[in-house]
Every structure is written in structure tokens, then in C-alpha cells.
Amino acid sequence: MLRVAEQAHRTDTGRQRQANEDALFARSPLFAVADGMGGAQAGEVASQIATEALEETDPGDQAPEPYLKRVLEDANERIHGIAQKDASTSGMGTTLTAVLIRDDEISIAHVGDSRAYLYRDSELKRLTSDHSLVEELRRQGRLTDEQAEEHPQRSIITRALGPEPVVDVDTMTYQARAGDVILICSDGLTTMVSESRIAEILADAPTLDAAVAAMIDEANANGGRDNITVVAFRLEEEGAEVVDSQATLIGPSAEEAGLTADRVAAGAGGAAASRGGRRPAAAPAAEAPRRRWPGRIARTLLVLLICAGLGAAAWFGSRQVHFLGVDEAGRVTLYEGLPYDLPFGIELYEEELSTPVQLTSLPPDRRDEATNHELRSEDDAKSLIEDLESAAVAPTQQPPAGGAGTGGGEAGGGQPGGEPGGSGSGGGPKPAKGKGKQQGGG
Q1: Are 159 and 96 within 8 A, CB to CB?
Q2: φ, ψ for residue 419, nearest 5 deg
Q3: Per-residue pLDDT at 209
Q4: Is 110 within 8 Å of 35 (Cβ atoms)?
Q5: Residue 156 in contact with residue 134, Cβ under 8 Å?
Q6: Which range is least confidently modeled, 95-104, 125-134, 329-338?
Q7: Which part of the chain has CATH 3.60.40.10?
Q8: Cis ω on the peptide bond leading into residue 29 (within 30° of 0)?
């Protein structure tokens, strides 16, 4: 069982905004950050409604993920309903990333581009994936991690609470352990301070409160272009006590600790007897735990075998499905597996076939078929590729007899044999749903 041993949270307007449209919730075992958007102060209304939805409910014995999903869906319905009735709040929305601790696990519900991180063993790992245009391009391989961090459209989100009557909520659960630090923040921090620098601050700060304050100060020092909100908490074992092994016990303190002269002498005598070959009378009772080891080992091995079997089954199952996507060069590509990236750099898919067909060479009404990541059988996916290849061949004129052809080129979908390709029409990924986060109004 884990509990929250230390927590800290702060929110700041930043250097370039007039109002703070962020909101936070920090009441163990539930923590959250919301980043509002919309004209006037509508973003502030949306983020406040989202955090109030958390405050008004109690997880009780409900399963964490379904509970969090229901709360976010209820918040979305309330925000959307108010926006429909009040013209001054029309189009308002908010991100929301919530974390719930239960036993030795953390469960997350996530919509938008606020983030949750795990800091463990001096390493910072992102636990959520942004619902943003730039993240989608990065996931498709059209942007590198470095390009995504500096992209001018990185604040355009594709999913939020409020703009639509129904919202798709991401939920996930991770195994936690004592010493873990969980960090939740709005993009006012992550667009101003790099992840590597956040890890350094967590490593150097004497307390979480000092770390949170340092992060906000650094974000402001780097420009503070947006509101900045940070929530952090550290986990420890239930009932754990902090013991200073270097303390010197004197007088009453030693007696309270059970270290009286008689007890110290008895302990020393027992240790000396063991070293000298004469065992204390109580020693045989200490053998009992050893006889239990074979059973513990057997149970541990059984659990490991079951986990390995389930993992193998999941891996095998994922290799029975395929989907289409776009590689770094913009080509329609066949992938094997599931179109998901897990934390810690784990991908559930691998490239099986890269075609010569450029996404931009497809008719606009066919591009969605190459980017929607619909799961298919291998035969169905290859059949679709053949169909798209045919659709991409749209020569505008016949080449002169004996000539090599003109035009073409990879971006235009040119085909071997001298056939000219079309010029393409821009294309790109599937259009984003929802509203982009406004840069000027908070």
C-alpha cells in the first residue's frame, strides 16, 4: 500500500497573460491540472467547472479508470451545456489531466495537452500523450521530437473538454513504488522548461515545494508566455517511518527506543554467543521463515510465468492486425501491430511495407483512409494500398513517344516509367477535431 508522503502545488499567471485560466485540484488521493481556453474569461470558467467536478465526487470503492472517465465525461457535458446557453462562453473548453492513487497503482484520465510525468531513479518519464496537432504529426513520423518541441503550432489541441457534446477520454494505470514522484502540469511549464531541466530541478531541490517554485520561476524567466500550473506529490509505503540512523541516543531517548543498558548487554551477549559457537536458546525459532522460502519462490515463479504468458499472448495478438499510416517521408506505409505508443518509448507496431505513394498525391477525399489508423487484416490492408496506388495515378497528359516524361517527382506522386505525377494539394494528416488553444486570450 502506498500513500502520499509529500505534496506541493502552485499556479501562476505568467508574464504575458492578464488572467489565469488554469485550475488545479490537490486532495489526496486525487490530483489534477486543468488549462482553460476561450475568449474573455471563458477558459477560467471551463477549467473551474472541470476541477469542481472532481471535488463533488468520491471514488469510494469504484474502479479508478471507469470512475475518472465518468467524471471527465460529466465535466465535458456540463461545460458544453453552459457554452450552448451562454453566448459569452461559446466555444470554451479546457484540458484536464487527473491522477488517482489506489493501493500501489496510479490511474490517469487525460484530455488535452496538460501532462503527467513519473520521476523515478533520477529519470523523468512522460505518462500521457498530448492530444495536439503537433503530437499527431510526431507520432506519424512527420516531425522529430526536437521539431515538435519548437513547432509554432504546438499549442493547437485536437481534444478538450467542452467544445463537443461527447469527448474521448484516455485512461491508463501504472504500477507505482515508494519514492516515486508524480508531476502534473499545464503546457505553460513544458513549453518554457525542457524535460531534462525539470528532471534536474527535481533532483536538486530539497523539497517538492522548492522544486515546484523553481519550475515556475524558471518558466517565467524564460518568457512566461502562458499560465503555469504544477502539482507534484511523492509516494511512500503505508506506515513508513523516517528513521535517522546517524542520531545519537542519550538518556531518556535511548530508553524510549528500548536501548536500556540491560537490553544492550543482552543483545551483545547473544551476538557474542553466536559468533563463539554457542547458539542462544531462542535461535531454533528463527529457522521457521527459511522453511517457507520454497513456497514463496514457487508462487513468485508462477506469477512470473503467468505474466510472461499474458505478455506473449498480447504481443502475438497485436501482430495479427495491420493499419495504414504515413512515414517520415510522407509515404503511405503499412504497419503491423496496434497504432499506440506506450510510455518509456515502447511502440506496439512496426513498419512492414513502405509504398511509393505520397499522401499528397492522393485525392483529398481518400487521404483519410491512409491516416485514420483503422485496424485491418493483412490482406484487407494490402488491398487498400493497391486501391490507393491506383487512385494516386492521375496523369494529366501522355508523355511524348520515346520520351522520359516530365513533371512527376516524389511529392507529386510520380510513377516509374516516365508517367508524370500530379502536383498534390497539400494534404497532411486527418483534420483535427475540437478547438485550438487560443494564444492571445489565455
Answers
A1: no
A2: -80, 130
A3: 97
A4: no
A5: yes
A6: 329-338
A7: 2-237
A8: yes
Residue 154 identity: R
Question: What's the rounded mean pLDDT across residues 121-133?
Answer: 94
- Rounded (10°) CA dihedral 137, 98, 119, 241: -170
- pTM for the predicted model, two decimal places: 0.56
Contacts of 236 (CB under 8 A, 6+ apart): 2, 3, 5, 178, 179
Instruction: Give CA–CA dist 322/384, Å, rounded.
Output: 11
Residues 6+ apart with CB under 8 A from 64: 100, 102, 105, 107, 173
**What DSSP letter does each residue of 337-359 carry, written as one string?**
EEEEEEGGGEEEEEEEEEEEEEG
Helix, strand and coil in the chain, % to nearest 5? 40, 25, 35
The Cα 56–Cα 78 span in angstroms is 13
49 or 407, greater pLDDT: 49
Residues with Cβ within 8 Å of residue 369, at least 6 apart in sequence: 324, 384, 388
Sorted by sequence, the CB contacts under 8 Å of residue 338 that are 6+ apart come out as: 318, 321, 323, 348, 349, 375
Q: To 10 degrees, what angle do helices 42-55 and 64-85 make? A: 140
Nearest to 3 by CA among 71, 79, 103: 103
Report the distance separating Cα 266 and Cα 276, nearest Å: 15
Look at residue 96 and give its three-state secondary structure. strand
Give dist(CA 155, CA 144) in Å, integer. Answer: 16
Confidence of residue 243 (pLDDT cuts 50, 70, 90): very low
Strand 96-102 with 93-94, pairing: unpaired
Residues in contact with 283: Cβ distance below 8 Å, sequence separation at least 6, in sequence order: 274
Cα–Cα distances in angstroms (integers) from residue 14 to residues 142, 220, 431, in the given order:
31, 6, 31
> Within a 13 Å sphere around the CA of 111, how many CA atoms are in the beta-carbon half?
29
For domain 2-237, the CATH superfamily is: PPM-type phosphatase domain (3.60.40.10)
282-291, 319-328, 371-380: least confidently modelled range? 282-291
Element holding 32 (H helix, E strand): strand 30-37
- Residue 205: partners with Cβ closer than 8 Å, 6 or more residues away: 211, 214
User: pLDDT value at position 208?
Assistant: 97
SS3 state of residue 403 = coil
Beta bridge mates, 358: 331
Confidence label for 434 from pLDDT (cuts 50, 70 and 90): very low
Q: Could you read off the pLDDT of 264-280 as tens digits, one per residue? A: 334 434 433 333 333 33
